[in-house]
Design a protein that fits this description.
Layout lengths: L5 H8 L39 E4 L7 H6 L8 E7 L1 E5 L5 E4 L7 H6 L3 E10 L5 E9 L2
Antiparallel strand pairs: 1-6, 2-3, 2-5, 3-4, 5-6
């Protein structure tokens, strides 16, 4: 019979996550002290705040637009991004359409610096699961 000792404990110490278990581990989030919240990765020389991007929105069925209209917005509908605790795509009337994936959390810092983001629904469907894809472009301050 083998008894687990320090040798096996050493193997376990080398495995698993290397994060701190806090939200500052997410790319683009702000650390508690110091740093600029750049997240994981080196500078590429390109300002990612000034880049256009596409994304599939999350939590569509839990958002205002779906609840009020019983479905998803049509293609080509104009949306913008607002921070409401989390980053959300909203329609012209201020109804939330969906949450941006957390990989876009860096946009909160961009918006604090004066950037705004406007977009259009690229595609949407209500079944079997509601989904909305959006193309966004920045408005540079």
């Amino acid at each position: 019979m083998t008894i687990f000792g320090t040798q096996n404990a050493d193997l376990r110490d080398g495995m698993g996550s290397t994060g701190s278990g806090s939200f500052s581990d997410y790319p683009g989030s702000r650390p508690k002290e110091g740093g600029q919240g750049a997240g994981g990765g080196g500078a590429s020389g390109e300002d990612r705040c000034a880049r256009a991007f596409s994304c599939a929105l999350e939590e569509v069925e839990q958002c205002d637009y779906f609840s009020a209209n019983g479905g998803v917005p049509p293609a080509n509908m104009a949306l913008s991004i607002e921070q409401r605790g989390r980053l959300f795509a909203v329609d012209a009337g201020g109804q939330t359409v969906g949450a941006l994936p957390t990989g876009f959390n860096y946009l909160a810092d961009c918006m604090a610096a004066g950037f705004t983001y406007e977009g259009r629904v690229n595609s949407s469907r209500s079944a079997p699961v509601a989904s909305v894809s959006v193309d966004f472009a920045p408005r540079i301050p």
